[in-house]
Amino acid sequence: MIEDAPVLTVRDTFPRPAAEVLAALQGVPIGYLVDCMNGGGALDHAIKGLPESYATGPAPTVLGTALPCACGPADNLALFAAVAVARPGDVIVAATGDHLGCAVIGDLLLGMAKNAGVAAVVTDGLARDVAGLLEVGLPIYSRGISANSPARNGPGTVGLPVVLGGVRVAPGDIVAADRDGVVVVPLDIAGDVAAKLAEVRRAEAGLLEKVRAGLTTPDFIEAILQSPRTRRVR
């Protein structure tokens, strides 16, 4: 006979990104962060902010430290626990196993997260109470909306790694989000990403200047078109 498993497993102390690294990534378009990580790091394209939040003002931008929680399907006990242990500036990342049968968060829980100083909530599940979510004003990124409600039974984890939107998210990773979606920068490469940003910015600015001047064919495409790597047929 085995003992009943705990309903919650919580780790609330873990390495966090240095303040100077967070400052270096503040306000950076998530596409630039992806370029700094060789084209990866973005969560599944379906995980987006509320469309209504884009229509009522500037699109929300997010940067903070990941606090992952594993809720499982149709349950949000772990999400309540994550709000309870979160530090100001954390981004709660709530994994549901892509459950789409009910919401994992509504306006009241989002309001509690805002009161706790949380920077945003990201989930691979659904949210509810759109009018209330917009009133709270805390950025929330989800797969969509459902009026159905979850239970609060567990089991769940807080502060342990999860896989969400096809990306592994560990506690202390950096989460950035804007209109294009959500990106996770692993803590162990965050300094390298910050150092590479200047190079990415220069490349983007240089190409943008050429596009505005009328560019239609970049040099690398022209070179391929004029090389043996292109076969022309009739």
Brief digest:
The protein is an alpha/beta fold and 234 residues long.
Feature tags:
alpha/beta
Report on the architecture of this protein.
Helices cover 32% and strands 23% of the residues. With 234 residues, the chain is α/β, with parallel strands linked by helices. It has a single domain, classed as Ribonuclease E inhibitor RraA/RraA-like (Glucose Oxidase, domain 1, 3-Layer(bba) Sandwich). The strands form three sheets. Strands 1, 2, 3, 4, 6, 8, 10, 13 and 14 form a nine-stranded mixed β-sheet that branches. Helix 2 (30-36) packs across helix 7 and helix 5 (107-115) packs parallel to helix 6 (130-136). The longest helix is centred in the C-terminal third of the chain and has 23 residues, at 190-212. It is elongated.
Q: Tell how many strands the DSSP assignment holds.
A: 14
Helix content: 25-40%
Compressed to H and E, one letter per element, the order equals EHHEHEHEEHEEHEEEEEEEHH
| CATH architecture designation | 3-Layer(bba) Sandwich
**Might you state the CATH topology name?**
Glucose Oxidase, domain 1
Q: Are there runs of 5+ residues with pLDDT below 50, and where?
A: none
Tell me, what is the CATH class?
Answer: Alpha Beta
Shape: elongated
| Rounded Rg | 20 Å
Integer average pLDDT: 93
Category by helix and strand content = alpha/beta
Q: Give the CATH superfamily.
A: Ribonuclease E inhibitor RraA/RraA-like
Q: Biggest β-sheet: count, sense, barrel?
A: 9 strands, mixed
**SS element count, helices:** 8
Distance between termini? 75 Å
* Beta content: 15-25%
